[in-house]
Amino acid sequence: MSCALLCILCLAWVGQVRAEAPLILNSADFVLDASEHPPADSAGWHPQALPDSWPVNHPAAVAENAHGGWYRFRFSAPAAFDPLQAVYLPKLGLNAAVYLNGRLIGSGGRFNEPYGRHWNRPLLFLLPPGALSPGQNTLHVRLLSHAYTQANLHPILIGSDRILRPKFEREILLRVTLNQTASLLIASMGVLMLSLWWRRRRDVAYGYFGISALLWAAQSTNLYLREAPLATAHWEIVINSSFQVFSAFLLVSLLRFSAAGGQPLLPLLWISVVASPLTQILVPARHYLTLTAFWHVFTLLCAFATLLFLLRAAIKWHNRDAGLMSGAMGMVVVLAGHDWLMHSQHFWLTRPNEFLEDIYLLHYSAPLVFLAVGMIMTSRFVHVLNEFEALNDELEDRVQAKHAQLQDSFTRMSALEMDQAVAEERERIYRDLHDDVGAKLLSLVYRAGTPESADLARSALQDLRDVVSTTQQGNPNLAAACADWRAECEQRLSEAGIVLDWQQPADLEAYDLTQPQAINLGRILREAVSNLIKHAQANHASVRIDLETGVGGGSLSLTIRDDGIGCGGAAPRPPGRGVRNMEQRAMRIGALFSRESRVDGGCEILLRLPFAAVQGSGFSPPST
User: Fold this and answer.
1) Can the peptide bond before residue 114 be classed as cis, meaning omega within 30 degrees of 0?
2) How far is the C-alpha of 538 from the C-alpha of 497, rounded, in Å?
3) Lower CB density within 10 Å: C or N end of the chain?
4) How many CB atoms lie within 10 A of CB 450?
5) What is the model's pLDDT at position 517?
C-alpha cells in the first residue's frame, strides 16, 4: 500500500516537473515585412529554423537593408501551468516586439531611429493573465534589423517566470552588469594613466595607455546601452572604428611600456587609426559588415604579432616586464579570437545558455592587462624606491665623510692658525730676547773673569737660543739637529781640552724629530757634556748616535762616554740635580735613561728612545 502511494507521489512530482519545464520554440514561420502589426496568414510565410542569422539565411534582405521581419510560432500550452508565465528571448538582434494571440506582450524599445538596442541583452516579458490559452496559441515576434548590424533570433522559451527569470538575470549579470563594472574599471585606469602621463610627459606609453583605456571604456558601452545617442549607422561606425583605434593605442603602449621592440608593427597600427574610421565612413552599406570583418581580423593579427614581440623580448632578452605582459596579452588574444568567431559567426549557437558560445569575453581580459601593468609599475616603483634609499644612504655617508673632512680641515686650519700665532709671538720674543737679553749674555761671555763664569754665560745663551729657536715652524730634521749638537759639543770640549769622537749614521736625513724631542735630547746632551767637563777629569769623550731595528721594533740611541774618574768619582755620592733633570727629560719624551761607570774607567750615559714612542711623538722612520 505504502509502495503504491510512493509511486503515485513520484509520478505526480515528475509530471509537475515536466509541466514546469519551459517550452522551447526553435521552429517558426518567417516573412520579410516591415509592418508594425503581425502580417496575415497569406503574407508568404515560409518555415525557418532557429537560430536564424540574417547574413547567412537572408543575405538578400541584408543587401536590400530590410528593416524588419516577422516570426510566427504555433504551440499548444500544457493542460496545467504556473499562473505567472513569461516569454524569454535569450539572444536577438537588433530589437524585438512580442505578440501572443494577436495581443502585444512587450517591446524592446524604439523601432525608429535611433533604434532600441538589444543585440547583447536578453528580453523577458510577463504574460498577462488569460493571454495564454489552454489549447493552440500563436506567438508573433517582430525583429528589427539594419544593414550595419547582424540581425538574428535564437530559440524562444515560454514557461514559468519562476524558472525563466533566474536565467534572464544570469544573462544580464554576465552580459551587462559585469561589462558595466569592467567599463568603470577601464575608465578609472585610463584616468590614472593620463594623470601619470600629465606628470611625466616623457613617458608617452602612459599617455597611449590612458587614451586606449578611455576609448575602450567608451566602446564597451555598446554592450549594454539600450538606446544609442546617434542613428544606428553612425553609431555602428563610431563603435566599430573605435575598436581599431583603442586597440592600436593599447598595442603601442604595451610594446613601449615593456620595451619589447615591435618597430615594424608600429606603422601599421598608426595607419589603422586613420584608415579604419575613414574606410567605414566611405564604404557602401551592403559592404559594411565585410569591411568590419576585415578590420577585426587585422586587429586580431596585430594583437598576435604583439604577443610574439613580447615573447621574443621575454625569452631572448630576458625581459621580465615583457614576460609578465605576454601572459596577459596571450589571454587577450584568446578572448579576442573567441569574440571574433562569434561576431563573424564561424560557429553558431545551438545551446543558448552555453557560457563560452554566447557571451563576448574580450572585456573580461581588461583586469588581466591592468593587473600586469600594475605589477610592472609596482615592481618599477619598488626598484626605484630601493635605488633611491640606497642613493640616500650613500649620499648620507658622503655627507658624513665630507663633514668629517671639513671638521678635520677646520681642526688643521685652527692648529695652523695657532701655530702661526705662536710662531709670530715666538719670533717677536726671539727678536726682543736677541736684541736685549742675548746681547747682555754675550757681553757676560766676553767679560767673565773665570772660565766657569764664561761657560755658564755661554750655556745660558745657548738655552735662550734653543727656547726661541725658529725651527718651531716644522719638525726639525735629525741630521740637522745632530749637526748643531756636534758643533756645540766640539766647541765646549775643545775649550776644556777634551778630545771629542763623534759618531753617527749617514742616513739621518730621512728622520724628523718633534720640537720637544729635539729640545730635550739637546739639553740632555748639553747637561752630560757639562758634567763631563766639570767632574769627569777626562781627556777623551765620545758621542755615538745609532738607529737600531728589530722584530719587536727599533730605537734611537744616544751614548756619551768619557775616560775620566767614573760617575761617582773617588767617593761615590748620590746623583745631583743635573742628573735628575736628565732623567726627567728622558721620561718626558718616552726614552730610557741609564748612567753608570765603566769597567775600564770613565762614565757612560745611554739614552734609548723606542720607535713606538718616537713615532707617537712625531718621529718618522724612512719609507721603504
Assistant:
1) yes
2) 9
3) C
4) 8
5) 87
